[in-house]
Design a protein that fits this description.
The complex is a heterodimer of chains A (204) and B (338). Chain A has 204 residues and is an all-alpha fold. Chain A has a domain of 81 residues: Four Helix Bundle (Hemerythrin (Met), subunit A). Chain A is built from ten helices and no strands. In chain A, α1 runs antiparallel to α2 and α2 runs antiparallel to α3. Chain A is extended and about 95 Å long. With 338 residues, chain B is mostly helical. The termini of chain B are far apart. Classes of the chains: A mainly alpha (204), B mainly alpha (338). At the A-B interface, α2, α3 and α7 of A face α4, α5 and α12 of B.
Chain lengths: 204, 338
């Protein structure tokens, strides 16, 4: 157990330090890199508590796809860092105020919230041994039976967002000569090539 | 003290020995793969290929390695030094850690985890960071363009690889890599029922490893050498080793998913005398030959053609095939029980 404990503190310390660096790093690309480190160490923590499916999905989805797109955008930003820090003192009081309001709201919700007894009971149940029940299968059992409607609704919301993004960015540009592969493949030799007998010194 | 020895030290030493038993042959295989590639390309272009260093030029790869090792590491003054140095290390490490879950024979695997396939997918999706970080940190035009290209390319082809893996998993019913091979021992190898997915997976593997005909991130005619422009000496060598180790990994993954991993083609007398790791090695070698063959034969794709192939051809087709496979499995009551 000592090893697990040490690994936990190692990962937890790196995750917290990296998360701090995300908001305090001066260079936005460094921020994204620290964000990736945070995701990665969090995945390590998931592995430690035996949730290996969640760990892998976290890496595949957030590190492998979402953070790549972040990086893609942030790399191309052209920011003047000196200019960015100019109004810092001017904006700080408003920022602190918003932060305090959010904190108070969060504390109020967390302080008064109670979990339903059903969920509490489920939480105290012993976790079955890994050899007996894999958590991939266990997750599948819950998601596709008990929470199927919520799961489908989440999928629908994502689909709507995707269609929205496509509609917003789609534009028809007239006068662009695109490559149509089917058209190219449909061309035959007879349509394109004509053999002519050319008399010397005359041309066509 | 005795407890400390039996709980921590001994397993630690065993794991270390297992890691060395994979990494050392892997690096040797990478060295031989560069030789193999140059010899095959030479034969296809009616040349001799490397033939000076050692018998038949066999030691050429080691001579190249020694040369790179003794060269000077140049750090560009305007580069972002730390990220610039981390990028090649990341590429190299990622190409090695994936081998932890590859089974060489039944039970012959360093870490037999339940989510092995997802682990491999996660590691291969991280591969893009090495290139993106290198391209950005170099602070130079060509590497940056290369980083953008490779980010877009690898994300695009990851999607179709994901769907291909889902199709295979539907037929297996487990995320364990060894179980994928065991499922093929009972029935046929998956490249027969899932032949189109086998082709899609192999082509996506070419794109994922930035190999010809999809080597746009390092297209020498447009981008000099892409993200490798500013790298020299061992930093360049680490990229090179990582790229070739990834090629071997992707071939191994293709062999496991579709060609029955360590299984002999027929489970009868002369075939099952040969041990599993040798069959696995032979399958990987055949796939690597195709990698090189493709490089020697096909011209490079244009960037818009690459994107069209990934998003408009492979993605809809693999999505359709996932639905078809699931439908067939349910209709004929073939769904694997877990």
């Amino acid at each position: 157990m000592i090893l697990q404990g040490l690994t936990f503190y190692l990962f937890a310390a790196i995750a917290v330090a990296a998360a701090t660096m995300v908001v305090s790093a001066r260079n936005p690309v460094h921020s994204v890199l620290f964000l990736i480190l945070t995701f990665f160490t969090t995945a390590g923590l998931f592995v430690l508590i035996g949730a290996e499916f969640l760990a892998m999905v976290l890496v595949v989805v957030y590190v492998g796809a979402v953070a790549v797109l972040f990086m893609f955008v942030v790399m191309m930003l052209d920011i003047n860092f000196v200019e960015m820090r100019e109004g810092f003192l001017q904006y700080m009081p408003i920022g602190v105020l918003v932060g305090i309001i959010l904190l108070v709201e969060l504390l109020m919700i967390l302080g008064t919230a109670t979990m339903s007894p059903e969920v509490m009971a489920a939480g105290t149940e012993p976790i079955p041994d890994l050899a007996q029940r894999q958590n991939t299968a266990a997750l599948g059992d819950v998601i596709y039976t008990k929470y199927i409607y919520l799961f489908q609704a989440a999928g629908m919301i994502l689909l709507t967002a995707m269609i929205g993004a496509i509609v917003l960015t789609l534009r028809q540009r007239p006068g662009v000569r695109k490559q149509v592969v089917a058209k190219q493949l449909a061309r035959r030799r007879e349509d394109a090539v004509e053999l002519k007998k050319v008399q010397p010194g005359q041309g066509i | 003290m005795a407890e400390f020895w039996s709980i921590y030290l001994l397993p630690g030493i065993i794991i270390l020995a297992q890691i060395l038993a994979i990494v050392v042959p892997l690096l040797l295989a990478v060295a031989m793969l560069t030789y193999f590639e140059r010899k095959i390309m030479a034969a296809m272009q009616l040349r001799m290929g490397p033939n000076v260093v050692g018998p038949f030029g066999l030691l050429q790869a080691f001579a190249d390695g020694a040369k790179l090792f003794f060269k000077e590491t140049v750090l560009p003054t305007s580069a972002n030094k730390i990220v610039f140095l981390i990028a090649p290390m990341l590429t190299f490490c990622l190409s090695l850690v994936a081998w932890a879950v590859i089974p060489f024979d039944d039970g012959m695997v360093v870490s037999d985890i339940n989510v092995g396939i997802l682990y491999l997918f996660a590691i291969s999706s991280l591969g893009v960071y090495g290139i993106v970080m290198a391209g950005w940190a170099s602070n130079s035009k060509y590497p940056f363009l290369s980083a953008l290209r490779s980010a877009a390319q690898m994300v695009s082809y990851e999607v179709s690889i994901g769907f291909v893996i889902i199709t295979v998993l539907l037929c297996v019913g487990s995320l364990n890599v060894s179980d994928v091979v065991r499922a093929q021992a009972e029935g046929v190898w998956f490249f027969i029922p899932l032949f189109p997915m086998f082709i899609i997976f192999f082509i996506s593997a070419l794109a994922e490893t930035n190999r010809h005909p999809f080597d746009l991130p390092e297209a020498e005619a447009e981008l000099v050498a892409g993200y490798q422009v500013e790298y020299s000496s061992m930093t360049f060598a680490l990229f090179f080793l990582g790229e070739y180790a990834n090629m071997i990994l992707m071939s191994g993954l293709t062999a496991i998913l579709f060609l029955g991993g360590w299984l002999p083609p027929f489970d009868i007398a002369p075939f099952n005398w040969i041990p599993g790791p040798i069959w696995f090695f032979l399958k990987i070698s055949v796939l690597l030959f195709v990698f090189v063959w493709v490089r020697a034969t096909l011209p490079r794709y244009r960037y818009d053609q690459l994107m069209r192939l990934g998003w408009k051809v492979f993605l809809p087709f693999s999505l359709f095939w996932v639905a078809l496979t699931a439908g067939v499995l349910v209709a004929f009551d073939l769904v694997p029980q877990t």
